[in-house]
Amino acid sequence: MNYRTYLVALAAAVAYNAAAFGNFATVSDDKAAEPADTTSFVFTDFALVPTTSVKDQNKSGTCWCFAGTSMFEDEIVRRGGKPLDLSEMFTVRQCYLDKADRYVRMYGGTNFAAGGSIMDLPYVWKNYGAVPEEVYSGLGYGEEKHVHGELDAVLKAYLDAVIRKPNKRLSTAWRKGVEKYKIPWINVYNPENSTLLSEYGVQGFPTKIIISPQGKIANITVGEDPNFFNTLGILINE
Questions:
Q1: Burial 56-89 (b: 16+ CB within 10 A, else e)
Q2: What is the distance between the alpha carbons of residues 128 and 60, in angstroms, rounded to a whole number?
Q3: Rg (Cα) of the chain, in Å, rounded?
Q4: Helices 120-128 and 88-105, packing angle to 10 deg
Q5: Residues 148-192 pLDDT 10s
Q6: Distance separating alpha carbons of residues 207 and 219, to the nearest angstrom
């Protein structure tokens, strides 16, 4: 690098710093300084594809569920359906329970971890259904976002203790420890200013809705009708 090139490079560096941090220096050369390059990228929308909002899995190994749920939500919108915000953690919870069953039956010979597959979503939705995010957020343990380090470690340690069979045989109570807080019915929370009552067609309390494995409403019962459980038994045996 010759002396002239060195001075030009030094002048350019000083000019850059002056523009970034204030005009604290003046640069002179044998020709007028060129105006700053104001060229920027300009994007033009040709087609807008509607999507649901971005969700945050935070510190949880549930990317498979967040990505899969987002894909299905967007596909519903693409086909002209109403935008939905489905609960990822409801799906994750059901997967944990089924993986726990397999892990114990195989005495630790299968995988029990946070990971999963996008195909777990249609499996859970077919067998257990799906609920809105506002009904089941999966939080409520002192965190504002998902943090599953403790959950993953505790559940794995619990199941490893079960398969060691310290009683010489498996008890009938081990699964109750995994699902301690399971609610037998999916209860729909109706917050203030919500439209859930009209969307679910609720006309009284309690309202019990039986949904078939195909996703169709098989029965709606309002109030404490003793015949409800007879109907449920008939549908289960069909």
A1: ebeebbbebbbebbbebbeeeeeeeeeeeebbbb
A2: 22
A3: 29
A4: 90
A5: 999 889 888 888 988 888 888 887 777 776 665 443 455 566 667
A6: 10
